[in-house]
Design brief:
It is built from two helices and six strands. By secondary structure, it is of the alpha+beta class. The chain has one domain: 60s Ribosomal Protein L30, Chain: A (2-Layer Sandwich). It is globular, with a radius of gyration of 14 Å.
């Protein structure tokens, strides 16, 4: 069974997609696949002021909100994919990212993207797994 996650504490989808989808497994565990989040302020719908540091912080707040909507947290994340507009921003993004996963780092891929939505510097999507809510 697949369930859609839509929360008000994260930016609304700007296209035909969901903030996240939950897949309920026969084992009783649930997989959550999030859409990529950029550094949009959910109240204004605009990118937060600043550069990659501020955007990465907002991206992770947005992901936390989406995961809360699925009754999970960053601690349940097993895989992330990070898209950067410029790999020169890697060290700064990595510093912010590392502080948000203190209990163990998920597997991660980081990719340089030719362009991100709305001129964002960073976009992150996650896969999380957890038990029944």
């Amino acid at each position: 069974m697949h369930t859609t996650v839509e929360v008000k504490d994260a930016p609304a989808a700007v296209g035909p997609y969901s903030q996240a989808r939950i897949v309920e497994l026969k084992s009783g565990e649930r997989l959550v696949y999030t859409a990529g989040q950029v550094g949009l302020d959910p109240t204004t719908g605009k990118l937060v002021p600043g550069a990659v540091r501020e955007q990465t912080e907002q991206v992770l707040r947005n992901l936390e909100a989406v995961l809360r909507g699925a009754q999970m947290s960053l601690g349940d994340v097993v895989k992330t994919t990070v898209f950067l507009a410029d790999m020169a921003d890697f060290a700064t993004m990595n510093e912010v990212y590392a502080r948000r996963f203190p209990g163990g780092f998920p597997a991660r891929s980081t990719v340089a993207a030719a362009g991100l939505p709305l001129g964002a510097r960073v976009e992150i999507e996650v896969v999380a797994i957890g038990g029944a809510p």
